[in-house]
Amino acid sequence: MEGSKITIDEIEKMPVLSTLLPYWFWNDTTFDRVETLCEKCKKEIGPEMMRGRITETNRSVISLEAYALCYDCQLITPVVPLRIRDDGSLLSKTQTGWKESRYAPEKTIGLLGQLITLFTGGEK
Ligand SMILES: [Zn+2]
């Protein structure tokens, strides 16, 4: 899939990215913002000016594919592929590999945290 060519027609058939966001994971972690810079004028482009799609890899991971449209430059800048995880971290693809960063603060410590919550009756 990666490296495959995509046509403007295909991009225009995709939904505006802001209509797909925010994305709520099963554990209430919310992914709501993605930005990129226009390749040419370096203007910041948000999801309102992107087309894209979200693929649910499994309930903990989604993949985001998006294209930023700059009408000033008449240019489409592809957003780096993102793998977004339900723990608030994401991986973005760089030339040298996948780079990890955070989009939301760490909320739970995964399954163990949930079990502890269950046993203690838990406060969120
Ligand atoms: Zn531009």
Instruction: Give the oligomer, counting copies of the same chain as homo and different chains as hetero.
Output: single chain
Count of helices?
2
Strand content of the residues, in percent? Answer: 35-45%
| β-strand number | 10
Task: Provide an overview of this structure.
The chain is mainly β and 124 residues long. The chain has one domain. 14% of the residues lie in helices and 38% in strands. It is built from 2 helices and 10 strands. The chain has helices at 8-13, 110-120, and strands at 23-24, 30-31, 36-37, 44-45, 50-58, 61-70, 75-78, 82-85, 89-94, 97-102. Strands 5, 6, 7, 8, 9 and 10 form a 6-stranded antiparallel sheet that branches. It has a two-stranded antiparallel sheet with strand order 1-2. Strands 3-4 form a two-stranded antiparallel sheet. A hairpin with a 3-residue loop joins β8 (82-85) and β9. It is elongated. The model has no long low-confidence stretch (mean pLDDT 88). The protein binds zinc ion. Zinc ion (ZN) binds at residues 38, 40-41, 43, 70, 72-73, 75.
Topology diagram in text:
Blueprint: H1 8-13, E1 23-24, E2 30-31, E3 36-37, E4 44-45, E5 50-58, E6 61-70, E7 75-78, E8 82-85, E9 89-94, E10 97-102, H2 110-120
The structure holds zinc ion.
Structure in a nutshell:
With 124 residues, the chain is mainly beta. It has helices at residues 8-13, 110-120, and strands spanning 23-24, 30-31, 36-37, 44-45, 50-58, 61-70, 75-78, 82-85, 89-94, 97-102. Strands 5, 6, 7, 8, 9 and 10 form a six-stranded antiparallel beta sheet that branches.
